[in-house]
Each structure stands twice: as structure tokens, then as C-alpha cells.
Amino acid sequence: MESTKKVMLSGIQPSGELHVGNYLGPLRHWPTMIEEYDCYFFLADLHTITVRQEPAELRQRVYKLLANYIACGLDPEKCTLFIQSHVPAHSQLAWVLDCYTMFGELSRMTQFKDKSARNADNINAGLFTYPVLMAADILIYQPDFVPVGEDQRQHVEICRDIANRFNGVYGEVFKVPEPVIQKVGARIMSLSTPDKKMSKSQPEGCVFLMDKPEDIMRKFKRAITDSDTENCVRYAPEEKPGVANLMQIYASATGKSYGEIEKEFAGKGYGAFKPAVGEAVVEMLRPIQAETERLLKDKAYLESVYRAGAEKASYVANKTLRKVYKKVGFIQP
Ligand code: TYM
Does 221 qualify as catalytic in the annotation? Predict the structure, then answer.
């Protein structure tokens, strides 16, 4: 019997270690959604090769990310966990959608501009058409919602544009999904340069999910606060972006409001606040780290999870692909 639940889908690239931005932005909210929605969460390995990868490292990172997913609470019995390259229909749909996406709109993608500036010696076609593959990842499961961090909003918007364009020609083929972006945590900033988002390409300001407690504490103690002399924990993102970012992390990790945090640290200053944020993050990550380590020792289990996931995902994805092929006029094999 077909499920009547609304559908939700998202993915993360195994292009580096998961960091606190990935976790506090989208990932930590996913387990709360698996009861209510029919959820698909995947590892976007096809996307990673837009930038050169070391093959052996990529393989290791896929296992680690899958273990991280499960350790963060994504129960494979309750949602579909799979590896993108195991479901060829993503790439097949991407080709069709390439033909319904304009050069001009891809040229306006801010992530393409940023990444091509950072990889000037390898501005490949995959980097350019990446948002089309992402649109295929999404549309092929006909989801209602796509939970992501703020930096992926533009990619979900172009996915909606592509779906609407295709539907405009062929009728209601694709459901047009809504992005789901949390209010707190949607854009965690770097600890060393709080005007830039936390990202693995800036390891010093980035706290990784599997960092040792002492490294986490060191990173938070060194976090840039502000050049003001006020030394007061107050939420003022324009004036005090470093403090606002630490407050965002502390609020996400503890569930406290900004008002409660201001009260808690009234008269105490940054010297007390920064290690407190570090400790809250260490405690938040402790069980995830332990469970990830345990799962990584059980490769057979991880393999059984991604095999079952690919089978479930392929069934749904192939159904959409067949519909699309028929609409554009391909003869059914
Ligand atoms: P990726 O792998 O760069 O990031 C994974 C998720 O983490 C969010 N994120 C952040 N959130 C808050 N603060 C930050 N500093 C931060 N950095 C990253 C991202 O917004 C994302 O939600 N293209 C996607 C992967 C993808 C995908 C998809 C996602 C491929 N196909 C289909 C959704 C649906 C990406 O590169 O995310």
C-alpha cells in the first residue's frame, strides 16, 4: 500500500568530515521528522567529484557519514538511507532536466561563483550543472519538503523553477517542494571569521562532529568575539557577529532562548561564556561520537543499511523516471 504521509528528502556531501554547521543547521532536526513524514536521506557522493577527491578517502568518508547519520538518530528502520550513486535514476533524470535549465540561471548561482573562484584550475562542467543534479535528487522522490541550511536555499529555489518549467510543458509531473530552513542554526558561522559560514574549507574556525573534546574546547576558547570593550553577552548580530554566532550555537545545543542566555551570563563576560559553549557542544556530541565509533566497527551492518536503502529508493525513483521519459516522448524499453 502507498504511504499517505507527506514526503521529506535531504542529503549531505561526503566531501569532508561533518561539522557543527551541518549538524545544527539541518541534520539534528531530521530524526524528529521521521515519525511524521516518509523520509529519504542520502549521501550525495556524485556531487563530491565536482572537486577532486582521493578515492580511498572518499570511500572511508561515505561509511563515516552513514554511521554519523544513524548515530544522530536516523533509524534505518524508519526512514530510507542510501548512497546517491547507488540509484542511477538520479543521473538519468539530471540529464533530462539539464535540457530544461538555462545557462543564464546556472551562471547566477552564488555557490558556483564561490567554488569556481576557489578551484580556478578545475572549473568543470559538473560544478556548473551541479544544481540540476540536485534538482533531480529532489524531484525524483516527489517530496513536499526539503530541509536544508540557509546556503542551500538558492539551490532549492532553482529546483522549484525547473519543476515549474517542466510542469508548464507536460502537465503536473513533479510536485514542487518547499525548502524547510530552521530559524536558529540555519547559518552557523566560522569561529575564527564570523562573517563567513562555518565550512570544512576553513578548518580552524570549524568544529567537526568527531573532533576530540580538547580540540573542541580549544576552538571555542579561541573563538573570535568582538573588538568592543563591552565584554557583555548580548544578542546583537550586526554589532557583535562573533558573540551572536556563539549564542546561536549555545541556544541550539541547549534549547535556551537568547534572553535566557543573556541572563545566565550577565556580568560574567566572554571568558566564562566561550568555554561554556564549548562544554555544551562537547556534551551534545559525546553520544554521537561514541555511537559512530561503534557503528564503524560493524561494516556488514552499514552495508546492509545502504543496500536496503538503495532498493527502496530505486523503486520510487524509477517510477518517476519512467513517467518523465514517457512525457518527453522516449519509447518504453
Ligand atoms: P552540504 O553537504 O554542503 O551541506 C549539508 C547540509 O548542511 C547545511 N550547512 C549548514 N547549515 C548551517 N550552517 C552552516 N555553516 C552550514 N554549512 C552547511 C547545508 O545547507 C546542507 O543542508 N548540495 C547539498 C547536498 C545535496 C542536497 C541534495 C541537499 C545534494 N542534493 C538534495 C538537499 C536535497 C550540499 O552540498 O550540502
Answer: no
